[in-house]
Amino acid sequence: MKHTTIAIIGAGFVGSTTAYALMLRNFVSELILVDIDENHCEGEVRDLSDALPFTSTATIKHCSFADAGRADIIIITAGARQKPGQSRLDLVQINHRIIKEIFCKLRPINHDAVVIMVTNPVDILTRIAQECSQLPHNQVIGAGTELEAQRLRRFISERLNASMSSINAFVLGEHGDNQFVAWSTATVDGSPLTECGLTAQDRDDLEQKTKQEVYEIIALKGSTYFGVAACLSDLCQSIIFNQQRVIPVSCYSPTYKVYVNLPAIIGENGICKIIDLPLNADEEQKLKEAVHVLNNIYQTTSR
Ligand code: NAD
Predict the structure, then answer these.
(1) pLDDT tens digits for range 55-84
(2) How far is CA 286 from the centre of its chain?
(3) What CA–CA distance (Å, rounded) separates 82 from 214?
(4) 137 and 257 Cβ atoms separated by less than 8 Å
(5) CA 71 to CA 79: how far, in whole Å?
(6) At the N or C end, where does the chain have fewer CB atoms within 10 A?
(7) 3-class SS of residue 48
(8) Quick one: how far is CA 205 from the chain centroid?
(9) Residues near 221 by Cβ (< 8 Å), separated by ≥ 6?
């Protein structure tokens, strides 16, 4: 086990729920929380500390940005979240500034750290995090479409009355409105999903439902955090135990020279390898469109 200290920057809904999810998984020895709102952060640390006797986590502390920079895994959840009706891309100006500020305060960053960006729009901000941290591309990951892929698997399992574990399906492209399902590579019980009784209309409905879920949850309760916290603890597990599991994440594509969501093998150094899925022509086109949108927004933001 290489990594044992995890720092979470941003102790809001996503940050504190992630800390709790990590504690309950019993594989982190030390958790560090940092937030610009020091009182709130202290409150979360003390509330979470009440759960320490029931976990294998030894300590949870409210620390400085510099302490967080020395952690083995640094998870960034700080920044503004979507308001009802807002897209993730609407947050780019405000969160871009916040992320740049945070990376200045984290310096010097542990050279071996794996950074997991969560703040939206996650694909653009992961690219900015990699530039600010100057860590190699493989050590800077965005928690992107794993969440949508898990939602999709759940919706397909409900529709086909099949176990979620028998379904393999990826959501790729942008962690946002320019996402798409790689239906041509999806399987149920090892058979192509396109041959399992779902019509093109059914697939379209499932894809739209997956894309809309975030908007519907935000309209109902204002934010989403349980699912992403579970995804983040899953990612950390694959890093800490060098499990080399395939997880869709926002990663740097050498082909497109941009951070975009693709399936990748996740191990102790972050991304070990990006999986080259045999997409069909329509899916390739959708991937190129997502890359185009992300590149345009990045160019406008970084001017
Ligand atoms: P929140 O408002 O509850 O928490 C954000 C926290 O960031 C607050 O505690 C705030 O004080 C802190 N903060 C703001 N500026 C800071 C700074 N400069 N330094 C340190 N801390 C700072 O929001 P949330 O619901 O926890 O969402 C956080 C982010 O995560 C949002 O951008 C949201 O869109 C994103 N998110 C991403 C995913 C994903 O799958 N990638 C899923 C859900 C939410």
Answers:
(1) 999 999 999 999 999 999 999 999 998 888
(2) 20
(3) 10
(4) no
(5) 20
(6) C
(7) helix
(8) 24
(9) none
Nearest atom (ligand 1) to Cα of 118: 41
Catalytic residue among 62, 96, 175, 292: 175
CA distance 226 to 249: 18
pTM for the whole thing?
Answer: 0.97
Query: What domains are defined for the chain?
Result: 5-142 (3.40.50.720), 146-301 (3.90.110.10)
Q: Please name the amino acid found at residue 272.
A: C
User: In b/e form, how buried is each residue of 209-228, taking b as 16+ CB within 10 angstroms?
Assistant: ebbebbbeebeeeeebbebb
Cα 43 from Cα 18, distance rounded (Å): 15
Q: Let me know: does 18 contact 41? Beta carbons within 8 Å.
A: no
Give the length of the chain.
303
Helix 281-301 vs helix 92-106: crossing angle, to nearest 10: 70
Q: What amino acid is encoded at 172 in this protein? A: L
Q: What is the pLDDT of residues 217-252, one digit of tens each?
A: 999 999 999 999 999 999 999 999 999 999 999 999
Ligand 1 centroid, distance to 210 Cα (angstroms): 22
SS3 call for 84: coil
